[in-house]
Amino acid sequence: MAPPRDANWIDGLRGVASFMVVCGHLCTAFVPWLHAPAHDPKSAPHLFQLPFFRLAVGGRSAVALFFLITGYVNAIGPIGKSRSGNTDAAFNGIARSALARSGRLILPTMIATMLSWFLAQTNAYHMTKHVDSTWIRQGWHRQEPTLWMAFKSLFRAEVETWTIGWDDYDGTQWTLHLFLEGSMLVYMTMFATVLVKPKARFLIYAVLYLYFWQLGEGLAIGALKGMNIVFGMFVAELHNHYKDSATSVLPAPVPTIMIVVGMFMAGYPQDAAQNARWSHTMQTFMHSITVEKSDVRRYWDHLGASTVLLGIFFSRNARRVLTSPIFNFVGRVSFPVYLMHNTMIKTVLTWMVYLPSAMNPPRNEKGEQMDLQRGTTLHIFVAVALFYYILYRAAALWVQHIDPVCAKLVNLFTTWAYGDSQSARSGPILRNNGTLEKTVLPA
């Protein structure tokens, strides 16, 4: 069993982001109209369509948080070694992390896809095809007619998750190849800037940020991945600059104001921004400062999540909250929660919500079966509560039993790939004059 990680505020924030993603998908499944700020421009908004409250049912800004955290945690180590002048350790760390990171991301994802594939082949998604929720119904996957076709389907899904960014058995995995690309963007930037002074690296961050900002039209490359990764590296630079004094740099009210403003920006609606004056104003403003055809929703997601991250970074109280036991737990299980939640929505939650209707399927006048109808509001609330318990309980078991196996396999491969033990030391990567030198590894 792997030892528990120390309480860390960035882990707690990752747990919040994971929880928000699940909330967003539940909203899309059962109350998709909440993604708009109002039903139409003349209608009064629902409570959870208002700013701040809508974060409880929105998950888009949480995806931005994941990219910010990716940039932050992968850059801290190399930046720290660079600032201390230990460039050989920085280069070695980047080289080892780049290889290990791929395995740590790909192996658990493959296992999650296999789980969804197994459920599909045992016809566990049968009810999913007949429910009245469009989002859940779109996640249905047929049971393949032969074992050969089933394995071909699994192989295709495993490969396409990392090539075209789509997994037939779990559509919510479309971001994972972007997380891997984002990690490699961090390592490439760190490799290129290990020898430069911190002020120069800040300038490089600014140039990269402006580059990704103007891409605009490229959803995955620009506003979703690039800017968040770069800003995460920027905060990692601040971490190494201020060290333990970061929470005393700004006056007490300022970090709180930053968090509140960030939460407002992160609440920019996913759909129909023109239905409310506040969101329409935000839409018009962002269109005026971005290139043509930009997805302004991703820009607001980024700005909101980045401002929240920066506010937490400078806030002692916010960090204290995020290192509490409950946030430490949700942070530790955040990745398996992300990997399993869609599969469990299509099975466990669907069974609980639609079982009464499935026991007596509704039919039209011709005797044809109609979509299964969900239960009452109270029924759904109880089902969602049970779903969350089962999901987080399963995620805890994943961390206890599956993560250690994945970590061991990654360590075995990297040890073999390097041709030495993880603790072995290689020769210097750079000479004093900065020219490349051949590294000699023991036979």
Secondary structure blueprint with pairings:
Layout: H1 9-30, H2 60-83, H3 87-121, H4 134-138, H5 147-163, H6 176-193, H7 198-215, H8 220-242, H9 253-266, H10 277-289, H11 296-314, H12 316-322, H13 325-332, H14 334-359, H15 377-418
Brief account:
This is Acyltransferase 3 domain-containing protein. The chain has a domain at 9-29 and 58-246 and 310-358 and 371-418.
What does this structure look like?
This protein is mainly α and 443 residues long. It has a domain at 9-29 and 58-246 and 310-358 and 371-418. It is built from 15 helices and no strands. The protein has helices at residues 9-30, 60-83, 87-121, 134-138, 147-163, 176-193, 198-215, 220-242, 253-266, 277-289, 296-314, 316-322, 325-332, 334-359, 377-418. α1 packs antiparallel against α2 (60-83). The radius of gyration is 24 Å and the shape is globular.
List keywords for this structure.
443 residues, membrane, Acyltransferase_3, transmembrane
